[in-house]
Amino acid sequence: MEDQIGAPGSGISRRDFVKASGLGGTVALAGCTAPGEVPTEESVDASTTPAQSEGDLPTTSPPEIVNVDEQGGEVTLSSVPAKHEAHPGKSMGGPVELPKVWAFKADDGEPSVPGPILRTTEGEDMEVTFDNTDGMRPHTVHFHAVQKQWEDDGVPTTTGIRIDPGEKHTYTIPANVTGTHLYHCHYQTHRHIDMGMYGIFRVDPKGYEPADKEYFMTLKEWDSRLNQQMAGMDANYDVRNRRPDTFTVNGKSAPRTLHPEDGSPIIVEQGDTVRIHMCNNGYMDHPMHIHNHRFQVTHKDGGKIPEAARHDQDITSIPPAGRHTIEFEADADPGIYLAHCHKVSHAMNGTAYPGGMITGVVYKEAMDTDIFKQLMDYAGYEA
């Protein structure tokens, strides 16, 4: 577990945060940053039936970054039924909760939504073992972008491989396409992604040079009726009449997104070069806008955009499964600036505005201000 705060990425240390913000005290850490028959998916899927016997569910933690290279190229993912608090407080339309999700976890880590960020280097192979521990339903894991063997594609209807409860399967995932990509369950995809089974994996090119500050940002919209239905509540979810009502950045809704440990603030210092890897794991476009900064989109879906084709902009629309990497210089008047989806209904918690798919660029120089302390109060940061 790294001693850093902010969105998954470089961040700053807790010591520096407390020093800069003037928020003293001790804060509890909220979280870390098989072959066989080929039945039709519907015929064996227990996903449509809420499980009533799973007892008390754990609460998800923020996603951690797993350096797979440092683990000898191996990682084990498993699935954990859990409850997910997008914004547990009462401010700004809260609480916003998903009473049941199916969360990925890596090795002995904590379950998270989105799942852990898997990071490797160009030219290496990842051996990803999926251990189906949730006891109720089959799963698979599908990785975007990289070219792999047919049997490792993670689609049960075309590979003949699904992972039933209690089974394990290992996928060999070559790191042969650099960039930021996504992975997700490809069994009953429409339902399993909406239950939280998605995440980012990152392939760094050889000789990769990180920016001064580098962050990962995963976007998702939810129809909470599905999560309520799976939790056994009285809810009527219809996949053909999906009505998103919850909008998250790295699994959290504003103002929880600004929480320095549980959320995803983009913490910068004046003059920093900032790189943000954005990934849309939802089913809707999300035009992401950053206040008071101009950025360039340097990569799309793992492909590098030639410098001659780039331009300065302040909004980029990310389609479903799309990945955009943006870069900018932290050259604004040191303050606190929103980064949000510009579909304004996505920047709400129910009928309360602001909320939802909003985070912020927070200058370290602005942390020792009354407005920052007020935002920390809204976010539920108790120091």
Automatic annotation (TrEMBL):
Annotated organism of origin: Haloarcula quadrata
UniProt keyword Oxidoreductase, yes or no: yes
GO MF term set: copper ion binding; oxidoreductase activity
The name this protein goes by in its record: Secreted protein
Record-annotated Plastocyanin-like domain positions: 112-206, 244-352
Spans annotated as Disordered: 28-64
Top-rank lineage group of the source organism: Archaea
UniProt entry keywords in alphabetical sequence: Copper, Metal-binding, Oxidoreductase
InterPro entries recorded: Cu-oxidase-like_N, Cu-oxidase_C, Cu-oxidase_fam, Cupredoxin, TAT_signal, TAT_signal_bac_arc
One Pfam match: Cu-oxidase_3
Organism classification: Archaea, Methanobacteriati, Methanobacteriota, Stenosarchaea group, Halobacteria
